[in-house]
């Protein structure tokens, strides 16, 4: 008998704690520069949450999430770039009115695929739809043919490599290795002020919660249970009459859409987008954010993204040499010793106590299985 | 690319074809080790490139040692270096298998992450020990210069040497896998681990040696790599995606497939390079490979195994 409640009290507490942390504690205690950094880290949390769905629940490890993050980011960056490249501010170029890097690469008119990005509506749609469609195509091609696991990981990684080489190689159309830089305004509104940073931070947190709630809904719904079942015994699910490929494609697309939102928020907060967020290394780092947080825990993924990035900034600045060691050992350690990451640790040491405390607070909690270990406890 | 005459095209294809042969040799050497580790054992070793770089650094050290202490024997240092590179990488591989991989055989995706971590650690270790700058070896006299094949096509001697090495290693691996008792055990373990164990094969030992052999071959690849390029701490990462694609494209468990796909990919890349430039050639080649893999996920030469 499965009673699928949308959210147990335990989940609710977790969401509330995260909301207080992100909406009250951090904005009140950090200056705007650091808050902007946190906002940047949070863009990776989108990817990590998507990976919890794909990898933790569905067992699909994608090493190409950077592709979707990048596509989302680039879609918005193209709009912002076109806006800041009006003929007036680019009049010193040999062809005014096109982005500066095109001018440097002897392009004399806007390429056709840049044209629609003049419109904000189209660009926002593109942020969501282009990566999702791309994920859909990859998903259809791979999952319908029952390619999964390791092969899927390698092929998504190859796609990440291809896209990076393509972006870097086609300088005139994409801005090359520097990416699309120098983004200044959104519909005439300066995105580089402190006020804008605050606004984007809260928009980012808001969107993150939307994504978290969608993910939570997917996990607690029947769909989420089928995903778990698929991860464990794909054939049995198939023989029970479910269209395994369809579910996989769906969850992969959701993951891609989340990553794309993250990428777009990154562009807004940082004011640029470059291929260094697309390739193999960033894509695999995104997996580690998810793994550190706990591949089965949505909230854990957010904390994982925050903590690993924080560590990266702190260590990376003061001991750049130690950082790669630390990162490497973190990978090995998490995989070998803590396969359930932070969420697993929480479950081991605090989870039961918190659950008991919640029970005493009100009437007995309806769910007996705590969230974070739900999938890992078989 | 269409305004070339027929004879020009032939010459271009011949020239790029020979250049592609060198690339083929490097791909083949790298992919052989991976084909053994990934194809036979199902372990994804993302640190494979770093094992290769270890071989390259060992070669660099050997060449420096010879130049310092035995300049008279310098001409022959490369043969010593290959053996040392093999041993160093194989030993490290054995250590890694013992300390990490053997706990992860049931979780292939986790091996991928753990070995990626290992690759980061190794990269940083190389950077701390050898410095961030790329190093190159002095190539002995007899390996420099080039050999004219036809009027327009000249092959560098070092390239020919790498090719011979690649063919030699491939033959040795094929003999080992299909004609030796050990190879028979490896194939038995691949096909059915519990049964192999039941008939008295020490599967843990077979695993360790197989992994070590794969890493050792990567070391040889690294050694050969010094002939054509310089070595930096993160050079290995550049090759890892290509190498995996070569192995997957060939059909994971098939040696012949690995050879064929290394040949196809390197030739395509090298020929396209002439017309489109390096990066687009690579993009196009990889894209075609990925597309073919989507249509035929089992690769070119699929081994039929009942599971």
UniProtKB/TrEMBL annotation, chain B:
Keyword Transport assigned: yes
A Pfam entry, by short name: BPD_transp_2
Main location: membrane
Residues annotated as transmembrane: 12-39, 51-70, 76-96, 157-178, 211-232, 238-262, 274-295
Membrane protein topology class: Multi-pass membrane protein
Location of this chain's protein in the cell: Cell inner membrane
Transmembrane as UniProt keyword: yes
UniProtKB keywords: Amino-acid transport, Cell membrane, Membrane, Transmembrane, Transmembrane helix, Transport
UniProt record similarity statement: Belongs to the binding-protein-dependent transport system permease family. LivHM subfamily.
Protein name per UniProt: Urea ABC transporter permease subunit UrtB
Gene assigned in the entry: urtB
């Amino acid at each position: 008998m499965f009673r699928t409640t949308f959210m147990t009290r335990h989940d609710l507490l977790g969401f509330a704690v995260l909301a207080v942390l992100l909406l009250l504690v951090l904005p009140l205690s950090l200056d705007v520069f650091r808050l902007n950094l946190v906002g940047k880290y949070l863009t990776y949390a989108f990817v990590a949450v998507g990976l919890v769905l794909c990898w933790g629940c569905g067992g699909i490890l994608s090493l190409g999430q950077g592709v979707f993050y990048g596509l989302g980011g680039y879609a918005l960056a193209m709009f912002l770039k076109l806006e800041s490249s009006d003929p007036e501010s680019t009049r010193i170029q040999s062809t005014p009115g096109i982005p500066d890097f095109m001018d440097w690469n002897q392009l004399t008119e806007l390429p056709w695929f840049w044209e629609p990005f003049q419109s904000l509506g189209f660009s926002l749609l593109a942020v969501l739809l282009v990566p999702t469609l791309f994920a859909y195509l990859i998903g259809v091609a791979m999952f319908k043919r029952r390619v999964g696991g390791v092969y899927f990981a390698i092929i998504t990684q190859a796609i990440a490599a291809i896209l990076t080489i393509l972006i870097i190689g086609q300088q005139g159309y994409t801005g090359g290795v520097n990416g699309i830089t120098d983004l200044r305004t959104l519909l005439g509104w300066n995105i580089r002020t402190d006020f804008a940073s605050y606004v984007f931070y809260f928009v980012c947190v808001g969107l993150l919660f939307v994504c978290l709630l969608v993910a939570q809904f997917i996990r607690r719904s029947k769909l989420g249970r089928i995903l778990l079942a698929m991860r464990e015994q794909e054939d049995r699910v198939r023989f029970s009459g479910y269209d395994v490929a369809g579910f996989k494609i769906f969850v992969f697309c959701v993951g891609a859409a989340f990553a794309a939102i993250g990428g777009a928020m990154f562009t807004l907060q940082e004011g640029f987008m470059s291929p260094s967020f697309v390739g193999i290394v960033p894509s695999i780092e995104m997996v580690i954010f998810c793994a550190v947080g706990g591949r089965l825990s949505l909230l854990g993924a957010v904390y994982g993204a925050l903590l690993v990035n924080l560590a990266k900034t702190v260590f990376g600045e003061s001991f750049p040499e130690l950082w790669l060691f630390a990162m490497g050992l973190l990978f090995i350690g998490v995989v070998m010793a803590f396969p359930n990451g932070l969420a697993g640790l929480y479950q081991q040491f605090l989870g039961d106590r918190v659950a008991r405390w919640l029970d005493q607070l009100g009437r007995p909690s309806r769910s007996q299985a705590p969230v974070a270990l739900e999938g890992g406890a078989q | 690319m269409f305004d070339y005459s027929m004879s020009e095209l032939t010459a271009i294809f011949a020239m790029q074809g020979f250049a592609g042969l060198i690339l083929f040799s490097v791909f083949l050497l790298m992919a052989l080790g991976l084909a053994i580790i990934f194809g036979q054992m199902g372990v994804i070793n993302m640190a494979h490139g770093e094992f290769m770089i270890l071989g390259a650094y060992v070669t660099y050290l050997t060449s420096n040692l010879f130049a310092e202490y035995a300049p008279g024997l310098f001409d022959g240092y490369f043969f010593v270096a290959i053996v040392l590179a093999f041993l160093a990488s194989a030993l490290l591989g054995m250590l890694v298998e013992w300390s990490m991989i053997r706990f992860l055989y049931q979780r292939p995706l986790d091996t991928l992450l753990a070995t990626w971590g290992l690759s980061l650690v190794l990269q940083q270790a190389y950077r701390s020990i050898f410095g961030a700058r790329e190093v190159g070896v002095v190539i002995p006299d007899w390996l420099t210069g080039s050999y004219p094949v036809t009027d327009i096509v000249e092959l560098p001697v070092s390239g020919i040497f790498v090719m011979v090495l690649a063919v030699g290693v491939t033959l040795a691996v094929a003999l080992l896998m299909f004609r030796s008792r050990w190879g028979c055990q490896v194939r038995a373990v691949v096909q059915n681990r519990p049964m192999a164990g039941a008939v008295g094969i020490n599967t843990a030992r077979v695993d360790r040696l197989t992994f070590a052999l794969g890493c050792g071959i990567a070391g040889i690849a690294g050694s050969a790599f010094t002939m054509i390029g310089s070595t930096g701490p993160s050079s290995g990462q550049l090759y890892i995606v290509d190498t995996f694609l070569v192995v997957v494209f060939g059909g994971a468990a098939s040696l012949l497939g690995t050879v064929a796909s290394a040949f196809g990919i390197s030739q395509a890349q090298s020929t396209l390079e002439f017309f489109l430039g390096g990066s687009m050639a690579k993009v196009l080649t990889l894209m075609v490979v990925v597309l073919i893999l989507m249509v035929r996920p089992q690769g070119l030469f699929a081994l039929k195994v009942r599971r």
